[in-house]
Specification:
It is a single chain. This protein has 201 residues and is mainly alpha-helical. It folds into two domains: 73 residues, Glutaredoxin (3-Layer(aba) Sandwich), CATH 3.40.30.10; 109 residues, Glutathione S-transferase Yfyf (Class Pi), Chain A, domain 2 (Up-down Bundle), CATH 1.20.1050.10. It is built from eight helices and four strands. Strands 2-1-3-4 form a four-stranded mixed beta sheet, covered by helices on one side. A hairpin with a 5-residue loop joins strand 3 and strand 4. It is globular and about 45 Å long. InterPro entries: Glutathione-S-Trfase_C_sf, Glutathione_S-Trfase_N, Thioredoxin-like_sf.
Length: 201
């Protein structure tokens, strides 16, 4: 099984950390959708990260769908089974995925699109969406702290979204407004599964 993509993507990193936490053996191929586009196209013509190549050659995309397939194959899960705990995890994951998605869009808008082509109303909107997602995440983590001793998908996804935004968008948000998220990121990054898939950029 192969995970294709760079660990500076929060979605690739989410999958990689989850795989390490699940103790799932895989090969990581750090292929860039920008620098190595022709090679990536040979593996996945859609050129989408993360890409997951199953043992039978099936190519999957989207971090949530990849993790669903892996958990079905391994019989292991990073999701709580009890209903209220699962509902809380799904809320945290949903907010974190939105924060990650909007942060990636902001980064691309600011760094890939020429300044004279940037659409300010669109940029303002996605910044507002990302800020709202982080603010709601902060409320969730402050009310119910994540458990480093029982690292689950909510904890992984929240931490990778936060790390990407802090690294790539240092001037974009008032980071001091998010002490619970900041503390969780620091705690999570020290865990073995995170150290096995470090952010780099």
């Amino acid at each position: 099984m192969q995970l294709i993509g760079m660990l500076d993507s929060p979605f690739v990193r989410r999958v990689a950390i989850s795989l390490h936490q699940l103790q799932c053996t895989f090969e990581h191929r750090a292929i860039s959708v920008f620098r190595d586009m022709d090679l990536f196209r040979q593996i996945n013509p859609v050129i989408k990260v993360p890409t997951w190549v199953c043992d039978d050659g099936t190519v999957l995309m989207d971090s949530t769908l990849i993790l669903d397939a892996v958990e079905a194959q391994t019989g292991k899960s990073l999701m709580p089974h009890e209903l209220s705990a699962r509902r809380h995890a799904l809320r945290v994951i949903g907010l974190a995925l939105i924060a990650a998605e909007k942060s990636v869009q902001i980064y691309y808008e600011q760094n890939l699109r020429p300044s004279d082509k940037q659409h300010e109303p669109w940029l303002e909107r996605i910044v507002e969406q990302a800020a709202a997602a982080f603010a709601l995440l902060e409320i969730e983590l402050a009310a119910q702290p994540l458990d480093a001793g029982a690292l689950d998908q909510a904890g992984i996804t929240a931490a990778v979204a936060w790390r990407f935004a802090r690294e790539r968008l240092p001037q974009c948000f008032e980071w001091q407004r998010f002490p619970a998220l900041s503390q969780w990121s620091e705690t999570a990054e020290a865990l073995p599964a995170f150290r096995a898939a470090p952010f780099y950029g």
